[in-house]
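Regression report. Comparing outputs from two consecutive submissions.

Submission 1:
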Amino acid sequence: MGAQPLTENEIQMKEQEAREMVNKKALYSSIAAVLPIPLLDIGTDMKLMKDIRQEAEKIFELDHSQVNELSDDLMNRALVMATSMGSEFIGRNASKVLFKGAAKNSKVAKFGIAPLATNALGAGVSYMLMKKLGHDYVDRCAEAARNQTVS
């Protein structure tokens, strides 16, 4: 790919495009985190991160080998799985703390707001973590593109 080196201005434009793509994918991750289907969150996050990598490399006109090594791929997969499980754990446990003071007969308990808050918190964590992982990968792609740039 990448027949000609990119200028700094082109790299910045591609970086912005890639970040917008990552934000959309992170939103999909948060939606999957809300759905109460076992392992959907992890599977979705793995697929989304693969898509982020492929699309970012395409945007920057780079080969995968120009950005990563095999050990990075394995580490990336482990991070995606950890973020998926972590968002679920944080959402579940943080909501227990937040609603611990709610009485059994309170309006909070009657309307089932605690489970909704748990899901929303988990979705927020999933969004932020996927966004962070995606933006980190975009940074690596931009750095690889800059290493090929002639001033």
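Submission 2:
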Amino acid sequence: MFSAFKRTIPQISIFHREGVANSDRALELLRSAASSSYPPGHSKGPLKFNLEVVTGLPTKDQLQTIESYLPHGGLGSFVTGGSPATPDQVISQAKRNLDTFKWPIVVDWVDGKASVGDVDGVNDILENLRKRRDGEANEPEEHRPKGWFS
């Protein structure tokens, strides 16, 4: 009963660049999932999450965190045409030429999941949220009641 008080609304960020097809499509998917039934035609309605749209590059600290969320990490995941060794190098390369940065980056900060440069990863993040909403996935361990409440 009291575990509902501990649930947090997922925090989703998209590092977006307008005019990049994958980025525009990912933003459209996220907005649609938050405002309309998800999946389309589903009777349970839209997904509940806070969406932050960032039109700039992630910070060095954000890049390090996002890298840890990627299933196949590596700073090279963020850019084309090079293999940077540090987050500063990623940011420097992206600032020199924004077209080398893989837009969008979508991050679920609560579940620790991220997608870089593709829409399939965004669909995976949304599907994970749907499973949690529909009771098909377990809540993260920290949200389960402990002690005599369980």
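Expected: both submissions complete independently.
Actual: both completed, but the second showed a warning that disappeared on reload.
Relevant detail on submission 2: The first strand starts at residue 11 and ends at 15.
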